[in-house]
Amino acid sequence: MALSARALGAERMYLHPPDPDLTERIHALTHRWGGDFEVEGIDDWRRLLREFDGTVVHLTMYGLPLERIAPRIRSQPRLLLVVGGAKVPFELYERARYNVAVGAQPHSEVAALALTLDRLIGPVSRRQFTGGTVRIRPSARGKRVVEKEAPP
Asked: Which PANTHER family match (predicted)?
Protein backbone atom coordinates (compact mmCIF):
# COMPACT_ATOMS: atom_id res chain seq x y z
CA MET A 1 0.00 0.00 0.00
CA ALA A 2 2.74 2.47 0.98
CA LEU A 3 4.70 1.98 -2.25
CA SER A 4 1.65 2.66 -4.39
CA ALA A 5 0.54 5.61 -2.27
CA ARG A 6 3.98 7.21 -2.57
CA ALA A 7 4.43 6.54 -6.28
CA LEU A 8 0.93 7.77 -7.15
CA GLY A 9 1.10 11.10 -5.35
CA ALA A 10 0.05 10.71 -1.71
CA GLU A 11 1.99 12.88 0.72
CA ARG A 12 1.58 10.80 3.85
CA MET A 13 0.35 7.45 5.08
CA TYR A 14 -0.99 6.72 8.55
CA LEU A 15 -0.33 3.16 9.60
CA HIS A 16 -2.54 1.40 12.13
CA PRO A 17 -1.22 -0.33 14.08
CA PRO A 18 2.24 1.25 13.96
CA ASP A 19 4.96 -0.83 12.32
CA PRO A 20 8.42 0.70 12.93
CA ASP A 21 10.15 -1.75 10.56
CA LEU A 22 7.83 -0.92 7.66
CA THR A 23 8.09 2.78 8.46
CA GLU A 24 11.88 2.61 8.30
CA ARG A 25 11.86 0.64 5.03
CA ILE A 26 9.57 3.20 3.39
CA HIS A 27 11.72 6.06 4.73
CA ALA A 28 14.83 4.42 3.20
CA LEU A 29 13.05 3.88 -0.12
CA THR A 30 11.91 7.52 -0.20
CA HIS A 31 15.46 8.68 0.54
CA ARG A 32 16.76 6.54 -2.34
CA TRP A 33 14.07 7.32 -4.92
CA GLY A 34 13.16 10.88 -3.88
CA GLY A 35 10.05 12.71 -2.84
CA ASP A 36 8.64 13.82 0.48
CA PHE A 37 6.41 10.86 1.39
CA GLU A 38 5.99 10.24 5.11
CA VAL A 39 4.69 7.29 7.11
CA GLU A 40 3.31 7.83 10.58
CA GLY A 41 2.24 5.04 12.90
CA ILE A 42 -0.94 5.70 14.87
CA ASP A 43 -2.51 3.86 17.79
CA ASP A 44 -6.01 5.35 17.52
CA TRP A 45 -7.58 5.68 14.06
CA ARG A 46 -10.78 7.12 15.55
CA ARG A 47 -8.81 10.00 17.03
CA LEU A 48 -7.16 10.67 13.67
CA LEU A 49 -10.57 10.88 11.98
CA ARG A 50 -11.92 13.15 14.73
CA GLU A 51 -8.96 15.53 14.64
CA PHE A 52 -8.29 15.59 10.90
CA ASP A 53 -8.85 19.10 9.55
CA GLY A 54 -10.17 18.18 6.13
CA THR A 55 -12.42 15.78 4.27
CA VAL A 56 -12.41 12.07 5.15
CA VAL A 57 -12.98 9.77 2.16
CA HIS A 58 -13.49 6.05 2.73
CA LEU A 59 -12.62 3.84 -0.25
CA THR A 60 -14.94 0.85 -0.35
CA MET A 61 -17.00 -1.13 -2.83
CA TYR A 62 -20.29 -0.06 -1.25
CA GLY A 63 -20.30 3.74 -1.62
CA LEU A 64 -21.08 6.25 -4.34
CA PRO A 65 -19.34 5.59 -7.69
CA LEU A 66 -15.86 7.13 -7.93
CA GLU A 67 -16.57 8.50 -11.41
CA ARG A 68 -19.56 10.45 -10.12
CA ILE A 69 -18.06 11.74 -6.88
CA ALA A 70 -14.43 12.46 -7.96
CA PRO A 71 -15.09 16.09 -9.05
CA ARG A 72 -16.53 16.94 -5.62
CA ILE A 73 -13.66 15.25 -3.81
CA ARG A 74 -11.02 16.83 -6.05
CA SER A 75 -12.20 20.31 -5.04
CA GLN A 76 -11.53 19.68 -1.33
CA PRO A 77 -8.36 21.36 -0.01
CA ARG A 78 -7.30 18.53 2.35
CA LEU A 79 -8.15 14.86 1.96
CA LEU A 80 -7.68 11.82 4.14
CA LEU A 81 -8.24 8.69 2.06
CA VAL A 82 -9.09 5.75 4.31
CA VAL A 83 -8.48 2.29 2.90
CA GLY A 84 -9.84 -0.47 5.07
CA GLY A 85 -9.89 -4.22 4.80
CA ALA A 86 -12.53 -6.92 4.76
CA LYS A 87 -13.98 -6.13 8.19
CA VAL A 88 -14.24 -2.36 8.37
CA PRO A 89 -16.23 -1.19 11.40
CA PHE A 90 -19.54 0.42 10.43
CA GLU A 91 -18.39 3.45 12.42
CA LEU A 92 -15.99 4.30 9.60
CA TYR A 93 -18.85 4.50 7.11
CA GLU A 94 -20.59 6.93 9.47
CA ARG A 95 -17.54 9.10 10.14
CA ALA A 96 -16.45 9.48 6.51
CA ARG A 97 -17.74 12.50 4.60
CA TYR A 98 -17.73 10.35 1.47
CA ASN A 99 -17.90 6.57 1.07
CA VAL A 100 -16.60 6.02 -2.43
CA ALA A 101 -17.12 2.86 -4.46
CA VAL A 102 -14.18 1.96 -6.62
CA GLY A 103 -16.12 -0.62 -8.58
CA ALA A 104 -18.95 -2.57 -7.00
CA GLN A 105 -17.07 -5.85 -6.90
CA PRO A 106 -14.46 -7.29 -4.53
CA HIS A 107 -10.94 -6.14 -5.40
CA SER A 108 -7.71 -5.17 -3.70
CA GLU A 109 -7.35 -2.14 -1.48
CA VAL A 110 -4.22 -1.17 -3.40
CA ALA A 111 -6.21 -1.09 -6.65
CA ALA A 112 -8.84 1.15 -5.03
CA LEU A 113 -6.16 3.55 -3.82
CA ALA A 114 -4.35 3.58 -7.17
CA LEU A 115 -7.49 4.29 -9.18
CA THR A 116 -8.62 6.99 -6.78
CA LEU A 117 -5.27 8.79 -6.74
CA ASP A 118 -5.13 8.64 -10.53
CA ARG A 119 -8.61 10.19 -10.81
CA LEU A 120 -7.87 12.87 -8.21
CA ILE A 121 -4.25 13.81 -8.96
CA GLY A 122 -3.71 12.75 -12.56
CA PRO A 123 -1.44 10.43 -14.51
CA VAL A 124 1.69 8.98 -12.95
CA SER A 125 3.83 10.21 -15.85
CA ARG A 126 3.41 13.82 -14.67
CA ARG A 127 4.91 13.23 -11.24
CA GLN A 128 8.34 14.58 -10.42
CA PHE A 129 10.26 13.37 -7.38
CA THR A 130 12.89 15.71 -6.01
CA GLY A 131 15.94 14.48 -4.16
CA GLY A 132 16.81 10.82 -4.11
CA THR A 133 19.98 9.12 -5.21
CA VAL A 134 18.71 7.12 -8.19
CA ARG A 135 16.35 7.51 -11.10
CA ILE A 136 15.06 5.33 -13.89
CA ARG A 137 16.16 6.07 -17.40
CA PRO A 138 13.32 5.04 -19.72
CA SER A 139 14.21 2.13 -21.96
CA ALA A 140 12.23 0.11 -24.50
CA ARG A 141 14.01 -3.03 -23.31
CA GLY A 142 15.63 -3.86 -20.01
CA LYS A 143 16.06 -1.94 -16.77
CA ARG A 144 18.17 1.19 -16.53
CA VAL A 145 18.60 2.60 -13.05
CA VAL A 146 21.20 5.35 -12.82
CA GLU A 147 22.81 6.99 -9.82
CA LYS A 148 22.22 10.73 -9.64
CA GLU A 149 25.26 12.91 -9.49
CA ALA A 150 25.84 14.53 -6.12
CA PRO A 151 25.58 18.32 -6.17
CA PRO A 152 28.96 20.10 -6.11
From this structure: TRNA (CYTIDINE(56)-2'-O)-METHYLTRANSFERASE
